[in-house]
Design a protein that fits this description.
Layout (H helix, E strand, L loop, with lengths): L1 H11 L5 E2 L15 E9 L14 H26 L4 E4 L10 E2 L2 E2 L9 E2 L4 E2 L22 H8 L6 E4 L14 H15 L8 E2 L9 H4 L6 E4 L4 E2 L3 E2 L5 E4 L2 E2 L8 H18 L2 E6 L5 H17 L4 E4 L1 H11 L3
Parallel strand pairs: 1-11, 2-3, 2-15, 2-16, 3-8, 9-10, 10-13, 14-15
Antiparallel strand pairs: 4-5, 6-7, 12-13
Helix pairs in contact: 2-7, 6-7
Length: about 325
């Protein structure tokens, strides 16, 4: 249990998250607030884990994780309603579909396929990237579709944002993903979101596989999230006009930490953001265990609510829209 202990030490010493302060912080934090808080979640169901290297049977684990996510989403939405906290739901595009089918034996033949590859998290060596797509519907195979959950998010009391996580959770790095593959994936996302009246503005690369950045602006995206290190800092505007949001911490239940320490740590990160006048970006997968939702999240959200007069709590696009309106070139 050395790793959890060292993590606590680094946190206590202020090494994680690091703090990057700047004198012109007011340009990035709307008055009269002292800090900005962005919370996003990557909703992926089975698409994220189907080629995971950490499991002997990744497809089985992917389906299991998907059902946990399905169970957790309503509970998370309820907490957001109780504590008045908006979230940016970054969603895999295929999940918007109610159903799909094979054409001449192929799922989504209009989308070019990725080549075989291996990265830190996945190993893809199957005959076809979409080999596991059941090509049925969300009633028969709820692990691969979730228009019902998306409607639930849209209908929530709190106004959430829905962003883009590619159509099929691909590796977006330039040496893996060609512009043709990337463009076809994003076009499919836009088309799938259209019936819901959703305009996708926030983009998050699956598994932090940053790439094809020059193409994001072409599709009207205004930001992407990076996770190079945990940091309380400020967004960076690229020459293309798109903003890079830096991750501050990932929310999940870590082995070796007590429930009370989880609560303490996440509260402390918010406190540090307020004291340093920085932007705090938190993200999570909605597949964590019930302990996190039932014991950690309520206390954490309650703390945010108590300090909301000091924190600009926003969805990603709303904050980026404010930045574009308030920062001159």
């Amino acid at each position: 249990m050395i790793k959890p202990f060292l993590s606590k030490i680094n946190f206590a010493l202020g090494r994680n998250p690091k703090i990057e302060m700047r004198a012109d912080w007011r340009n990035y934090v709307p008055a009269p607030f002292k800090a900005v808080l962005l919370i996003s979640t990557d909703l992926e169901l089975a698409w994220a884990w189907q080629y995971a290297k950490t499991f002997a049977d990744p497809l089985k684990e992917a389906k299991k994780t998907a059902l946990v996510e399905r169970e957790n989403v309503p509970a998370i939405l309820k907490l957001c309603d109780i504590y008045n906290i908006p979230i940016t739901w970054v969603i895999v595009g295929h999940l918007f579909l109610e159903s799909c089918n094979r054409i001449n034996g192929l799922a989504h033949p209009e989308i070019p396929r990725l080549p075989h590859f291996e990265n830190e998290f996945w190993k893809f060596s199957e005959r076809d990237w979409f080999v596991n797509d059941p090509c049925s519907d969300y009633i028969i195979d709820p692990e691969w579709y979730c228009p019902d959950l998306i409607k639930m998010i849209i209908s929530a009391k709190i106004k959430h944002e829905i962003g883009c996580h590619t159509f099929s959770h691909i590796d977006c790095r330039n040496d893996i993903c060609s512009p043709e593959v990337f463009d076809s994936e994003i076009y499919a996302c836009k088309e799938a979101a259209r019936p819901f009246g959703i305009e996708l503005k926030t983009f998050v690369h699956p598994a932090h596989t940053i790439g094809n950045l020059e193409r994001l602006n072409n599709f009207g995206f205004t930001s992407f999230r990076t996770d190079n290190k945990n940091v309380l800092a400020f967004p960076i505007k690229h020459d293309s006009g798109i903003w890079e949001i830096k991750n501050s911490a990932t929310l999940y239940l870590r082995k070796g930490w007590s429930i009370n320490y989880h609560i303490y740590r996440y509260k402390k990160i918010i406190e540090k953001a307020i004291d340093s006048h920085t932007v705090c970006c938190l993200w999570f997968h909605p597949s964590f265990g019930h302990e996190f939702i039932e014991q950690v999240m309520p206390e954490f959200m309650k703390y945010i609510d108590l300090r909301r007069e000091e924190i600009f709590i926003s969805t990603t696009y709303s904050y980026i829209d404010w930045l574009n309106s308030n920062i001159s070139e």
